[in-house]
Amino acid sequence: MEEEAKRVMADNELSDNSGDGADVFRDDVLRRSGEETEVNGTIKVGVALGIEEDFFLQNHRFLLVSGKISGVEEKVNILNIHAPDEARLRKVLWEDLLVLINQMEGMWVIFGDFNDVRSEDERVNSRFDRGSFDVFNEFIMRASLFEFSMTGGKYTFISGYADVKLSKLDRFLVSDSFVNRWPTAKAGVLERGASDHCPISLICNPLDFGPIPFKFFNSWINDQNLTVIVQKALNSPHIDGRKDLSFMSLLKRIKVEVKKWRRDVRSAENQERKLLSETDMGSRCKWSKNE
């Protein structure tokens, strides 16, 4: 995708003195624009995810990238947030986001610094505001958002030296359609750098642990059939060029032939067990008749 994106700016940007925010995101506010501008870091997140940008919306509290991902029918909305410190202003922001979520179609990924916690154990050595906690959880419930549990650490904000303060302020909140599309997605807390916030990541692709391990039993070494397989592979034509590629090709040929050999062995053993079972059953029936 190009490094530039079409900008869609709200006519009524949010301000710290805004009211209930109910009319901030009217249909005419979410308008398209032909104006293009240089993308910033958040836009690049969408690009990295393969989003074909449809439009983006920006103000001083969040930046939204919306578009399509190849192979996914539903539109994807990715919103990077930096919530205000004051609980009163965060409550206004949650209401504004509810309006936005209800007005726009598609699945949602909302991430960043929410400046709020969802439970008391997400704060250490800092004040827990139960009122703010209730409002934040109510917003998540009303927006039908879900949170992936995080690996790599429990807290994302670390400050202080003598009296260290720990909080989980950064997280990923996603819609139910996102969970249905990527049920095995993994969220993680990464190592903190110069910032007092730890980076967070969300991996949607299934984890690839490499090739399936090939089982080999030492008891096979004394089997003449294995010796024949290896000798046949060694005497077959080799790939010219790099030695490592040639050796890898040799191992693959041996693996294919060993698996074929073991399938034949299992098939023969199963056939033998079947014959023994039938013979034993016949002997029992004959013995029963003689009685």
Description:
It is a single chain. This protein is α+β, with helices and mostly antiparallel strands and 291 residues long. The protein folds into 2 domains: 22-203, Endonuclease/exonuclease/phosphatase (Deoxyribonuclease I, Chain A), CATH 3.60.10.10; 218-282, no CATH class. It is 36% helix and 23% strand. The protein has helices at residues 41-48, 87-103, 130-142, 176-181, 224-235, 243-290; strands at residues 4-9, 36-38, 51-58, 62-69, 76-82, 107-113, 123-124, 145-147, 150-151, 157-159, 165-167, 170-175, 186-189, 200-203. An 8-stranded mixed β-sheet has the order 2-1-3-4-5-6-12-8, sandwiched between helices. Strands 7-11-10 form a 3-stranded antiparallel β-sheet, with no helix packed on it. A 3-stranded mixed β-sheet has the order 9-13-14, with no helix packed on it. Strand 4 and strand 5 (76-82) form a beta hairpin. Helix 5 (224-235) packs antiparallel against helix 6. Residues 1-40 have low confidence and may be disordered.
What are its keywords?
eight-stranded mixed sheet, three-stranded antiparallel sheet, 36% helix, 23% strand, single chain, alpha+beta, 2 domains, 6 helices, 291 residues, Deoxyribonuclease I, Chain A
How are the elements arranged and paired?
Blueprint: E1 4-9, E2 36-38, H1 41-48, E3 51-58, E4 62-69, E5 76-82, H2 87-103, E6 107-113, E7 123-124, H3 130-142, E8 145-147, E9 150-151, E10 157-159, E11 165-167, E12 170-175, H4 176-181, E13 186-189, E14 200-203, H5 224-235, H6 243-290
Parallel strand pairs: 1-3, 5-6, 9-13
Antiparallel strand pairs: 1-2, 3-4, 4-5, 6-12, 7-11, 8-12, 10-11, 13-14
Helix pairs in contact: 2-3, 5-6
